[in-house]
């Protein structure tokens, strides 16, 4: 029972950070690309 709760917690946390991290990476990436060009 404890393993299932712990697995659910970390699984949801990384999933939420995945999309946030991707958006953050695209923001600076786009700015750097525009400035370099």
UniProtKB/TrEMBL annotation:
Biased composition (Low complexity): 18-37
Biased composition, class Polar residues, residue ranges: 1-10
Superkingdom of origin organism: Bacteria
Region (Disordered): 1-37
Name under which the protein is recorded: Uncharacterized protein
Organism from which the protein derives: Lactobacillus pasteurii DSM 23907 = CRBIP 24.76
